[in-house]
C-alpha cells in the first residue's frame, strides 16, 4: 500500500509528520508500505505501481478539498478516507455547519464574509455590522482550512480588522461566528472491521487559552485529557453527535469532529475534519490509545475497510 504525505499546502510539515506515523504503525501491523509525496511524479508512480490501497495523509486544500481524491477515483485506486464529494462538504465550514444543523445538532451562529463584500460595500461598515451582530468576544476563521491557521478569538473591535485580514491569507472568505464558551473537545470516528466507532472524546486545554497552530503541533504547549473529564451522559451525547455529523456529511473510514461543550452539557458542532492529523500530538491517535486499542491494529482495520471488497 501507499501513504501519501507532504504536498504544497501551508500544512506540509504536519502532513509529513502524520504520514511517517501512519506508515510506522502500518509496518508494525505487518503491511508493506511506501510513502510518496504529492508532487508532479506522483501520478506516473501510482499508475505504474498500482498499490492495493492508497492512504492520503495530506492536510490543507490538497488533502481535504476533494481534488486529489477525485484523481484517485479517476485512476480507479481504492483509498482510505472520504470520497471527494464528502470532503468538499466538510472542507467548506459554512456548508458543513448548515448540513449538520439540519441533522439536529447545534452550531454557532455565523456569517460568511467574502473579500468582494468588503471591496463593494466598504470594510468599515461591514466590520461594524458584524461586530454589532456578534458582540464580543467573537471568532474569526477562514471558511476553508485546518490546523487553526488564520483563526482568532477577537475580544475588541479594534482587533477585528486584523483578524479578518489574517483569515483572508488562507482564502477569500472569512467566517465570523459567535464565541461559545465551554470545554473544547474532539471526537474521532473510525470505521474498521465493519464497525463505525466513536473514540473517547479528548479534552483540550491550551496553555495560552487558544488551541492555535503552535498549540496543536508543539509538544507540551497543550494539555490533553483522554478521555475528557465529562460525565457519562455528556460523553454519550458527544459520541452520538460525532456519529451524526460523520454520517450527515457522508464521511468515510475516519474523521475528527470538533465541539464546544457548554456548561449545560450541550455539544456545539464547530467543524469536521476528513483528514485529521496523525502526529504524536494529534487527537485521533490519543483517542485510539484512550480506547485501549493499538494504533497498528486499528489502522490495519481501516485499510481493510478500504479494500474493494469492503467498499459499499
From TrEMBL:
Entry's transmembrane regions: none
Domain of life of the native organism: Bacteria
Gene3D superfamilies listed in its UniProt record: 3.40.50.20, ATP-grasp fold, A domain, ATP-grasp fold, B domain
Catalytic activity: 2 D-alanine + ATP = D-alanyl-D-alanine + ADP + phosphate + H(+)
Cited InterPro entries: ATP-grasp, ATP_grasp_subdomain_1, D-Ala_lig_Van_CS, D_ala_D_ala, Dala_Dala_lig_C, PreATP-grasp_dom_sf
UniProt keyword NAD present: no
GO MF annotation: an example: D-alanine-D-alanine ligase activity
Annotated keywords: ATP-binding, Cell shape, Cell wall biogenesis/degradation, Cytoplasm, Ligase, Nucleotide-binding, Peptidoglycan synthesis
Annotated ATP-grasp domain residues: 97-304
Role played: Cell wall formation.
HAMAP family: Dala_Dala_lig
Protein name: D-alanine--D-alanine ligase
UniProt organism field: Kineococcus mangrovi
Name of the gene: ddl
Amino acid at each position: 500500500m501507499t501513504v501519501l504525505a507532504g504536498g504544497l499546502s501551508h500544512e506540509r510539515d504536519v502532513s509529513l509528520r502524520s504520514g511517517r506515523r501512519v506508515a510506522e504503525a502500518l509496518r508494525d501491523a505487518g503491511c508493506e508500505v511506501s510513502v510518496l509525496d504529492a508532487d508532479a511524479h506522483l501520478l506516473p508512480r501510482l499508475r505504474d505501481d498500482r498499490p492495493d490501497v492508497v492512504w492520503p495523509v495530506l492536510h490543507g486544500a490538497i488533502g481535504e478539498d476533494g481534488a486529489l481524491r477525485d484523481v484517485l477515483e479517476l485512476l480507479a485506486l481504492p483509498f482510505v478516507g472520504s470520497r471527494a464529494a464528502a470532503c468538499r462538504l466538510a472542507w467548506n465550514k459554512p456548508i458543513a455547519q448548515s448540513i449538520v444543523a439540519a441533522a439536529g445538532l447545534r452550531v454557532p451562529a455565523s456569517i460568511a464574509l467574502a473579500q468582494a463584500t468588503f471591496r463593494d460595500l466598504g470594510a468599515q461598515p461591514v466590520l461594524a455590522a458584524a461586530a454589532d451582530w456578534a458582540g464580543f468576544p467573537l471568532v474569526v476563521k477562514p471558511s476553508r482550512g485546518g490546523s487553526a491557521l488564520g483563526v482568532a478569538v477577537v475580544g475588541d473591535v479594534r482587533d477585528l480588522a486584523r483578524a479578518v485580514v489574517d483569515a483572508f491569507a488562507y482564502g477569500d472568505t472569512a467566517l465570523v461566528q459567535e464565541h461559545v464558551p465551554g470545554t473544547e473537545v474532539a471526537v474521532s470516528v473510525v470505521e474498521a472491521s465493519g464497525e463505525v466507532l466513536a473514540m473517547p472524546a479528548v479534552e483540550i486545554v491550551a496553555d495560552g487559552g487558544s488551541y492555535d497552530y503552535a498549540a496543536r503541533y508543539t509538544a507540551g504547549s497543550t494539555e490533553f485529557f483522554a478521555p475528557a473529564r465529562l460525565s457519562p451522559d455528556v460523553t454519550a451525547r458527544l459520541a452520538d453527535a460525532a456519529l451524526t455529523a460523520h454520517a450527515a456529511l457522508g464521511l468515510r473510514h475516519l474523521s475528527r469532529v470538533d465541539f464546544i461543550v457548554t456548561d449545560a452539557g450541550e455539544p456545539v458542532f464547530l467543524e469536521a475534519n476528513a483528514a485529521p492529523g496523525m502526529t504524536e500530538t494529534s487527537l485521533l491517535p490519543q483517542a485510539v490509545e484512550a480506547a485501549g486499542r493499538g494504533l497498528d491494529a486499528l489502522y490495519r482495520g481501516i485499510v481493510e475497510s478500504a479494500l474493494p471488497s469492503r467498499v459499499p
